[in-house]
Automatic annotation (TrEMBL):
This is Sensor histidine kinase. Pfam families: DUF5931, HisKA_3. One of its GO terms (molecular function) is protein dimerization activity. GO terms for cellular component: membrane. InterPro entries: DUF5931, Sig_transdc_His_kin_sub3_dim/P. Keywords: Kinase, Membrane, Transferase, Transmembrane, Transmembrane helix. Residues 11-180 form the DUF5931 domain. It comes from the Bacteria. The lineage of its organism: Bacteria, Bacillati, Actinomycetota, Actinomycetes, Kitasatosporales. It comes from Streptomyces alkaliterrae. The keyword Transferase applies. Residues 191-225 form the Signal transduction histidine kinase subgroup 3 dimerisation and phosphoacceptor domain. The keyword Translocase does not apply.
Length: 254
């Protein structure tokens, strides 16, 4: 009875990372909205609260509308990354417009912008993540009109995290390619073994029979039997992986 073939499903480290990124974007959106409402309700901190409210409403629509785009590398296109970066940087630069008195430390998108950088890391690797972190850092410096300790701390934190994640993803992709190649070789070996069994039960038996009949009949039939025997040996070597080796003569089958 033939054994059932065992198939191996490809394992990808990126799938949980994309799911985590989607969850991160939603949670940080809730956090950004909460920070805005807290400062506006309890401290009346925003000189132009309508600007912040409109931006955060747009950010909420954008976040939920693009959840599918951050579900896999195929859907997270370069165009989406460029647009997502524009939304994040636009929110940073709009923050002083809404917070005219500079009373609120976080920007309007707050830590949501880190999700954009992480998308670069997962999709394109650590080098692009470092570049995206640099752009976000420049936007924060422009928004703060100078370097502050909090700005440097936040930018460095996002940069280090995104570079680390991007590097891990690149290593994981190399490992997955090596695993896929190993599985392909294993599948080819199993197929060769199956063909070997089929050939052994079919063609090789026919060649052996021709060799026996040729030896029994003699004359030209004996020559045909000899050729059949040589082909049997060559075919056995081929099945065993011995391509290129000279055929080994065997004694005639009685």
């Amino acid at each position: 009875m033939a054994k059932p073939e065992v198939t191996h499903e490809p394992v990808s480290i990126e799938r949980p990372l994309w799911r985590a990124l989607a969850g991160y974007r939603v949670m940080t959106l809730v956090y950004a909205v909460g920070v805005f409402l807290f400062h506006h309700h309890y401290h009346q901190a925003y000189g132009r609260p309508l600007v912040g409210a409109v931006y955060l409403a747009f950010l909420a629509v954008w976040t939920f509308a693009t959840l599918r785009a951050v579900s896999s590398a195929e859907r997270c296109t370069n165009r989406f990354l460029a647009m997502d970066s524009t939304v994040a940087i636009g929110g940073i630069l709009l923050s002083p417009v809404a917070d005219t008195h500079a009373q609120v430390s976080p920007t309007l998108p707050s830590v949501w912008v880190a999700g954009t950088v992480l998308a670069f890391a997962i999709r394109l690797g650590w080098r692009w993540a470092a570049g995206a972190s640099l752009v976000v850092g420049v936007a924060n410096v422009v928004e703060e009109v100078g370097l502050t300790r909090d700005t440097v701390h936040n930018v460095l934190l996002v940069t280090i995290a995104s570079i680390g994640i991007g590097y891990v993803v690149e290593v994981a992709r190399s490992t997955e390619r090596a695993l896929a190649e190993a599985l392909r070789i294993e599948a080819a070996a199993r197929e060769r073994e199956r063909l070997a069994r089929d050939i052994h039960d079919g063609v090789l038996q026919v060649l052996a029979m021709v060799q026996r009949r040729g030896d029994a009949l003699g004359g030209e039939a004996a020559e045909l039997g000899r050729l059949a025997g040589e082909q049997e040996v060559a075919l056995r070597n081929l099945v065993a992986g011995g391509i290129g080796r000279p055929p080994v003569a065997t004694a005639p089958v009685p």
